[in-house]
Design goal:
Blueprint: E1 2-10, E2 13-19, E3 24-28, H1 35-45, E4 61-68, H2 73-81, E5 90-97, E6 102-106, E7 109-111, H3 113-123, E8 124-127, H4 129-132, H5 141-149, H6 152-175, H7 179-199, H8 205-217, H9 219-234, H10 243-257, H11 262-291, H12 296-316, H13 320-338, H14 340-386, E9 393-404, E10 407-416, E11 424-425, H15 426-429, H16 432-446, E12 454-458, H17 466-479, E13 484-488, H18 492-495, E14 500-509, E15 512-519, H19 522-534, H20 540-552
Parallel strand pairs: 3-13, 3-14, 8-12, 12-13
Antiparallel strand pairs: 1-2, 1-4, 4-5, 5-6, 6-7, 9-10, 10-11, 14-15
Length: 555
């Protein structure tokens, strides 16, 4: 659960440290006091999209830190995959800067915003006012059924099969070109293959040719250098003053005294080895000198070959490997085009097999959705009855369609709010208050399948009052027995049922606005509930009613 939230320089909140508890936590405050800022701060630390406008005016950066305790096994496993240790406590922080940078950490380890977002889905489920209006969009209804049915594994299987089918279908369409286009392509491929094949390219050839060109272009310098080295090493082998003779003399001097010292013996051996090495170098220099070729025709042929390779590389790849790969692909494509009918029929068979596989999984998915939808409608309708919609009936209209990303069917919620009226699309008949209660009913049902430890409801009471509000509070309290619940509300019937009540208030000091979040005592709760009910002037009767409300909902 979310145990502690630290907010610094977020909008009108300069600094605030909020400690939350298990159960139902309610947040109230005047309009504009900053209730939504607390929710936005939680969203920020969960990886939601933010902007620099969220940073308090005059501040260079903003920081949000959240401490989670009693972290679930599922979250710990997810952290382990990221290489992050967690022993029941999890600390997440996100720093926003005016430069637009995000500095994120999980248990002190640097991470990305996307990592926060993936982890956040396992920690907190935020239901805001906008989410109720998702019920107006039939395209989103299917996800509620899939969530309740835990269809993730089957959906993944279907998506893999569907992607394979679409990939093969695209390949089939590419192959199914007119004869003229196919003939044109065959001519192009034959020309390319002939040009590359006749070039007889080998890997490493260009580097070797460049080396030869350098040698041939500098043949006189090389000849002069080799001759000089040979003369200095050996002279004419009769002169006394040359490297070989000097080495031999030095070797004899050391050898004659080597028996007197191990060090001298070692030096004598090293000098002997050096002499052998020097004679090898001399022999190789002689070979290289004799092999030198200054044939200008050979240099011209190398230049022509390099120019050919350069021209080919501009069309077929910068390296020999890339050009040879192009040649192999061109030969394969030509073979397929020349044997078009055979390849087309085989590809067509593969498309049919892939389509059949995807359809079978989609049909299985549809059947599971049909079964889940029946149970879903019964449970949601029951919850709506409790939430002061006694005659509400929910139905799921399931319609077959062509294969797409989610299967072979679409779902749409239909609702009848009054006796005698047939169910109609939610978007056409539901009011704001009905949408709020319907969404709460759905969330209550889905909470059975959603292992998220913390649920946040941001003004779920929009458009309701009276007994409906009281029942919403009761439902939130029921949900809080299995999950921690945070609820932003403006209704006393809901706020009175909270086990922890936080007041969000603002003040102006020296021309700046400051927002604070305070946990209320029992007397503080009475005053806050009386304010909500009484408006500008708080009366004793309002305080008495507030006490009665609090006492009414005490466990």
């Amino acid at each position: 659960m979310l145990s502690e939230l630290y907010i610094e320089n977020i909008a009108v909140i300069e600094k605030s440290n909020i400690n939350f508890s298990q159960g139902l936590n309610v947040l109230t405050g005047e309009t504009g006091a900053g209730k939504s800022i607390v929710i936005d701060s939680i969203g920020a630390v969960l990886g939601f999209r933010t902007s620099r406008e969220l940073i308090r005016t005059g501040a260079d950066k903003a920081v949000v830190t959240a401490l989670f305790t009693d972290v679930s096994t599922r979250v710990q496993e997810s952290l382990s995959e990221l290489g992050i240790e967690c022993e029941g406590e999890l600390l997440i922080s996100r720093e926003l800067t005016q430069a637009g940078k995000n500095n994120c950490r999980i248990n002190g380890k640097v991470c990305t915003v996307s990592m926060l977002k993936d982890l956040g889905k396992l920690l907190i489920n935020i239901h805001g006012q906008h989410e109720s209006y998702e019920l107006m969009s039939p395209d989103l209804h299917i996800r509620y059924i899939d969530t309740l049915g835990s269809h993730d594994e089957l959906l993944n299987q279907y998506r893999e099969a569907f992607d394979e089918y679409k990939k093969l279908e695209v390949s089939l369409k590419k192959r199914k070109t007119d004869e003229q286009e196919r003939s044109r392509r065959i001519d192009i491929l034959r020309f390319q293959i002939d040009e590359l094949s006749s070039a007889d390219i080998t890997v490493g050839e260009k580097d070797e040719l460049v080396s030869k060109r350098i040698a041939l272009s500098n043949v006189e310098r090389i000849r002069e250098g080799l001759s000089g080295a040979l003369y200095k090493l050996g002279g004419d082998m009769t002169e006394g003053f040359c490297a070989f003779n000097l080495l031999d003399d030095a070797g004899s001097d050391l050898s004659s005294i080597s028996r007197y010292s191990e060090n001298i013996e070692s030096l004598s051996e090293r000098l002997s080895n050096l002499t052998y090495e020097l004679r090898d170098i001399y022999a190789e220099c002689e070979d290289m000198l004799s092999d030198l070729d200054s044939d200008p025709q050979l240099l011209d042929s190398i230049e022509e070959r390099l120019e050919l390779l350069s021209n080919l590389s501009k069309k077929y790849g910068s390296t020999e490997e890339e050009m040879l790969s192009f040649l192999a692909e061109a030969e394969a494509e030509l073979e397929a085009l020349l044997n078009f009918e055979e390849h087309y029929e085989k590809l067509q068979q593969n498309v049919e097999i892939a389509f059949k596989k995807a359809t079978e999984i989609a049909n299985e998915l549809s059947e599971k959705r049909r079964a889940v939808s029946k149970d879903f409608c019964e449970k949601v309708s029951e919850q709506m009855h409790f939430l002061d919609m006694p005659n509400a009936v929910l139905q799921v209209q399931q319609t077959d369609c062509e294969l797409y990303e989610l299967g072979a069917d679409t779902l749409e919620f239909l609702i009848s709010a009054n006796v005698g009226e047939p169910p109609k699309p939610v978007a056409k008949i539901a009011s704001g208050g009905e949408l709020s209660r319907m969404m709460l009913a759905i969330k209550t049902v889905l909470s059975q399948a959603d292992p998220t430890d913390t649920l946040i409801f941001d003004e779920v009471d929009t458009g309701v009052s009276g007994s409906a509000a009281e029942r919403i509070g009761m439902k939130l309290k029921e949900v809080s027995r299995s999950s921690q619940v945070l609820c932003v509300t403006h209704l006393p019937q809901i706020a009175a049922q909270g086990e922890n009540h936080y007041k969000i208030s603002k003040r102006i000091d020296q021309g700046r606005t400051f927002t604070s979040v305070d946990l209320l005592s029992n007397d503080g709760r009475v005053e806050e509930l009386a304010r909500i009910m009484g408006g500008v002037t708080v009366t004793d009767s309002a305080r008495d009613y507030a006490r009665d409300l609090i006492n009414k909902f005490k466990d």
